[in-house]
Structures are given as structure tokens and as C-alpha cells.
Amino acid sequence: MDKVRIGVIGMGRMGITHYSIINTHPGVEMTAIADTSGMMLNMIAKYLPAVKMFTDYKDLLTSGLVDAVIVCTPSVMHYEVCRMACEQGISVFCEKPFTTSPVQAKELADMFEAKGLVNQVGYVYRFDTVFAKVKEMLDKGLIGKVSHTAVQFLSSTISKPQKEKGWRSKRENGGGAAYEMGSHAIDLMEFFFGAPEKISGTMMGQVYSEAVEDIVDVQMSYKGSVGVNIHVNWSDYTYRKPMLKLDIHGTKGKIVADLYGYRLFLREADEAAGLPGGWTSVPMNMIPDPCPFYVRGANFTKQLYEFVDAILQGRRSGGCPFREAVDTQEVIHTIFRNGNVTA
Ligand SMILES: NC(=O)c1ccc[n+]([C@@H]2O[C@H](COP(=O)([O-])OP(=O)(O)OC[C@H]3O[C@@H](n4cnc5c(N)ncnc54)[C@H](O)[C@@H]3O)[C@@H](O)[C@H]2O)c1
Fold it and tell me: Best of 95, 243, 301 to mutate for ligand 1, by most ligand atoms within 8 A of CB?
């Protein structure tokens, strides 16, 4: 295959972002878009006349115009869209959260593996410059055996009482801080430590939302007695942009990281790695990480290029495969089962 023909299903905020990014890949031809919004369809007709438009995604999937789709509909629809894409032999990049049910998530992972189709969920922080570097340091054992990690994911997404009730205000549609933000933090821990062995100490709270949680706290343990504590708050009005922060403690040192850079503390110099004892601070822009095109963040470009390159090279994607997203889905649903929402 010289070019991957790609369609976008759901041309809202993320659909537009992904379209603009992947349209720059030399091995891609953008062929189709499906959306139900009249305003969006008018815009596409005006600015992208060569792209075929559909109001029903099923017609896009059976059109024969696409080898792969990027699924950016409201989260509750991910399952039905991915399922039909698989039946049509179409590879899928699906936005997060993967589905709204672990049973559906597992079914999709099984289906795509059985058909050998490339599959990836948009857990984009795996591709973040700083967090990819943190993963590299952990894999090299720079801080020794990890004992504990504290994760905070904070934003001002919902910073006043909600008058307009979009899909994000209902859990059954995939709304709420656990699905929208917690899923990213949980996936990042899966990326570092694998699937959790135990999930406990769950608490959910409301600040401005009526039907979903604004705050999530959960404690988990991973293989090798790694304890993880996650705190998510999408009603923290002190953050203009979302901020994900990590504190990782090990027997030989500690890593403190956020989206702007990392600080590494080593109890003793690591001569093999060329690192001194004590603190080493590295801002994000000092970490070499070339990116061919930049919209919203290099990690958004890298995850989509990885998806397309996997199709072109006939290999499994190096991003988050559906199978690993099943684990994250299980964790989220355990949080829902265990956690009381307190107003
Ligand atoms: N990775 C990230 O950081 C990130 C950030 C934001 C959103 N997301 C995820 O991306 C997905 C989309 O979020 P968004 O913010 O773009 O939402 P959005 O509401 O802006 O866009 C959704 C689009 O889907 C369209 N749509 C609705 N029903 C449809 C149907 N039956 N067929 C085709 N199109 C349909 C809507 O008209 C809209 O244009 C969600 O799953 C969300 O959780 C991920």
C-alpha cells in the first residue's frame, strides 16, 4: 500500500485537530468525513470539496473509500463505530475513552486482533516528550525499584455550574472527570507499570456538575508492590490548560515530572548513564524530540503518524493498542462501582 485512505468520523474539536495533523503525512490521502452537524457539513463542502461527506457513518464505512478511520464521535458511540469498521476490514484509531463498557472494550480488542487490523486508542500522553523520557528512565532502572507514584491531573474544564448540557454532562455518554481525564492518567500508569493488580480507596466528588464526578481519587497497586495514587480534578480553576504531574519514588532516586519538563534526583552518581548525584533538571524544550508538524502538541502528531506508519509497514501500532485500553476501561468501571459521588 503506497497511501492509506483515511476517513474521519465525528468532525468536532478532536476530528478537526486529527484531520489537520494526519493530512500532512505523505503516505495519507484524506477521502471521507462523516458528521451529523449541518454547520460542520457546510464548512467541509466549502473548504474540503475533494473529500466525500456522509451524514451516516455507516455509509462511509461501506463506501469502499477508506482503509482506516479516525473515530472522534462522542465516546458512547465508539463501540458501534469500531465494531462496524472491523467488520468492514478497516483499521481504527479511536479517541479515548475507548468505550463506555469493559465488555465492549474486550470484544473489540478480540475482534481487531482476530482480523489482524491496526488498532490504537488516543491515549496521547504515551507520546508526550517528557513522559516518554520518564518511561525510558524507568525501563533503564535509573531510580531503582519503584515503590510509589503520585499522579495529579488538573484542569479548569468545568469551572462553573453547567447551563448547557452536552454529551460530557452524562456518564452514560462517556462524560465526567473519570472518563475524560482519569482515563489518561490511568493509561499512563499502564504504560509505565502494566495492568494494576488491585484498585482500592476510591472517592469521587462533585463541585459544579450535577450528574457526573468532577474529582476522582483512587489508589492502585501494580506488580512488584508499586503503589499509585491518582488525583483528578477538572474543576481546578487555577489551571488555564490541563496539567499532568508525576512524583515517582524509587530506591535509588526520584523523578518529578510534568508537561514542562522533569527533575531527576539520584542518591548517588550513575557513571554509566553520565548522571551526577543529586538533582538534574531538564526542561521539556531541551529534550530532543523532532516533530514534522505541530498542532496542539507534538504528542498528537506522533500518535497519529505512528498509527499510519504501522498500517504502511504492516505491523502492530506502537501506540496504545485496544487490548491495553481494555485494562484502563476495567479500572474506570471499578472506580464507578466503588466510589461514592459526594456533593
Ligand atoms: N485525546 C484527548 O486529549 C481528547 C480531548 C478531547 C476529546 N477527546 C475525545 O474525543 C472524542 C470527541 O470529543 P470532541 O471534544 O471532539 O467532541 P465534539 O462534541 O466537539 O465532537 C463530536 C463530533 O461528533 C459528531 N457526531 C455526533 N454524532 C455523530 C454521528 N452519529 N455520526 C457522526 N458524527 C457524529 C458531532 O456532530 C461532533 O461534530 C470523545 O471521545 C472525547 O472523549 C479526546
Answer: 95
